[in-house]
Amino acid sequence: MNFALILVASPENPLSTAHLAHVQSMLDDMRIPMADAPPSWLGQHEAAELYLDDQLTREQLAALKQYGATQKLDIFCLAQTNRKKALLLADMDSTIIADETLDNIARIAGVGDKVVEITARAMNGELNFENALRERVAMLKGHNADILKQALEETTFNSGAKTLIKTMAKHGATCVLVSGGFTMYTEYVARQCGFAYNHGNHLDVSETEILGTVSDPILGRQAKEDFLNHYMAKLSLTPADTMAVGDGANDLAMLDASGLGVGYYPKPSLEKSLRHTIKYSDLTTLLYLQGYHKDEFIDETF
The domain at 1-81 falls in which architecture? Predict the structure, then answer.
């Protein structure tokens, strides 16, 4: 039982014993040695794990993921040791929340089409993040600062976000929100979910209007990795004790540096660089990956 093969279902297609049997058959065909232990349900018809003696190669895992795609199953293979993590770093926009906050602000300001296009290219790694941020913020210059509050009120949390953070915090983990978005949003999202710390960019605003600039230094790709290293040192942890989650190209350094980096509905340029991705299930999958059972989850309304 050195490794766990974890299957997590989408809400539209519950996990069944037939799915588990098919995966076992695929493992037999690949001549993958399985441990002498039956599959275990982590959440009935939501998540289960099988036990292997050896780690899967990237090609073997890719073959299982191809089957998973036909059944809307996320599939992972992880070592059994050190599964529960002591530190989580999470991106905010399109990860913990469903929104891209700057896109929302721009839409309210009437410049949404221009900003959305730049955001999409930046998140896919086609543009320099810092330059793209400055370009988009400049389009907001002179707009009434009240639109920032309106965008905040429209914030939508992704399914499982609050459960993920509250459950990990209850079990002693430190959860940190790190975002290329703005501090007024990271502070709100952190408070709602229960993050211990949050970091974002500072949007320059007067009493009445958006000034069209962002204060230096800009929190981008390197800063996210730096924060991971900062909190590891602060808490006397190793990379094996850490997990990170994000969706965009500016998250890659943080995901690579963590012990378990997971792409959440990742942009294409990010997905091709990752072994672990969530494409069909929700953020509670990050709890299942750590070996938590459904009855250990903290309800989102708590």
Answer: 2-Layer Sandwich (3.30)
Per the annotation, the verdict on 99 as an active-site residue is no
Q: Where in the chain is the domain with CATH 3.40.50.1000?
A: 83-302
Please state the rounded mean pLDDT for residues 89-107.
96
Of 74, 93, 247, 282, catalytic: 93
Global pTM reads 0.96
Tokens linked to 195: 């993050």
Q: Which of 53, 54, 74, 91 is catalytic?
A: 91
pLDDT at site 124? 87
Q: What does the pLDDT average to over 251-276?
A: 96
Which part of the chain is CATH 3.30.70.260?
1-81
**93 has catalytic annotation:** yes
CATH no. of 83-302: 3.40.50.1000
Q: How far apart are CA 297 and CA 164, in angstroms?
A: 8
Say what percent of the chain tops pLDDT 90: 94
